[in-house]
Amino acid sequence: MQKYSLLLVPLVHLSFGTFTACSQKPAAKETVVESSMRYLENDRIKLGIDLSLGGAVTFLSDRENGGQNMINSHDWGRQIQLSYYSGPWPYVGPNGETPTPEWAGLGWNPIQSGDAGGHRSQVIDFEKRGDNVLFVRAIPMQWPHKTGVAGECEFECLYTLTDNVITLEATIVNHRSDTTQYQACSQEMPAVYTNGPWYKLVTYLGDQPFTDQPTTVVVDKSDNKGWPWVHFYTPENWVALLDDKGYGIGVFQPEVMTFNGGFHPNDSHKGFGGEKDVQTGHTAPIGKQILDHNIKWTYTTSLILGTESDIRGYAKANRKVEPQPEWNFQQSRQNWYYEGDITDSGFPVQDGLHINFKENTSLVSPVTFWKAAETPYLEIEGEITSANPELSLTIEIQPVGKSDLTDWLNWSEGDKNIAKENQQKSGDFPKAASFQIQQPISADGSNRIYRIYLGDSANYQGAMKNLKITFSKEGQAKIKRIKLGS
What we know:
The chain is mainly β and 486 residues long. Helix content is 4%, strand content 41%. The strands form six sheets. Strands 1-7-8-10-11-20-17-16-13-14 form a ten-stranded antiparallel β-sheet, with helices on one face. A six-stranded antiparallel β-sheet has the order 5-12-19-18-15-29. Strand 7 and strand 8 form a beta hairpin. The longest helix is centred in the middle third of the chain and has 11 residues, at 308-318. The protein is globular, with a radius of gyration of 25 Å. 39% of the residues are buried.
């Protein structure tokens, strides 16, 4: 095992040859400055991380596809790297540093490589564990700042290479001086940027996951799509970026069914380009998380190299979606979050979600997938207290609809306009209306299992993807478990 407690990273290999003078001065010794790159490699895959960029992935190749580097590093916002989001908006640094205006809306946004001004993140620990594992710990930089503002946190990455799959176990360890519990934000889990040859964005869009239904090409050559980024729902939890030969990289995130993706800047750049060129393919699994000031949060994402069949097959073999979803809140929020004036006791979560809620505030589930016919009941276990005896719960359920069979713009830019797109697609891809079920409950603080029948609603048919539980009055609760079942 190779271990470095602190690495000061040079950028290039340097060497000096020997020379002999008339004075018979001894020959100068060759000096080699160590590269900042560290690699994992087997007979097919080569992975490289750059310790001068916080341990972000800057090299990834597949010998079955020619062995070219697939990862784009045009700037330090690319690579394959960790990136997190929270409040406030804008985020002002500890010494009054203000963000650059074009990025101020991102708020608190530490990323693994460095900031928008070119200040690098600092690696503070590195280990090579055997032949197939790399571990790196780094202090990231706040991307929106160009003055070198370090994040009050640490990033940990554990990379494991097995056959044609790299497993990334990513952890953020927060120690922020600002102890505010900010609202949940969308998190990239992680962000992936490929070189121009890997432009074709493919996934499964539908309501029959893992039944060998046809996949969808979201971005293709000469389709005038890809920038701005688009977002979409895929109940198979994977996305692939492929080249003209059908080879590329797949991203499988078992906790997430919402992805971003695309290609920058336009059609004329699709299909060619290297790691320093501006053109890039992109995808990122997107999950919502509350990032407490002291949180330690880990997710695990797999990067699969190969064909669409390889990638989809891996996702099917490793999926975690259950026919009857259940969330136990003994040690974490299980990707649930809040809307409105509602907070919990913070990290660490212990024996349930200890929440204080105001009138008409909500618990919101992660985006998932279940079938109504297999789950006629919703169970909520916990202790709910309110001074008002007429407390009721509103259960709002969002079905999978035709709008989930396509992709949607993330923002408007140039000739790409969200309002115009919505109008054009509304006929073929209408959004399924959510529906509500009202349930009066006893809110006397006793531990109860509230069992709510969903089958009475005529709208509860087919595939569903998320739910929201709204409290009609102010109160407190300890929510231990939520389950959809029979």
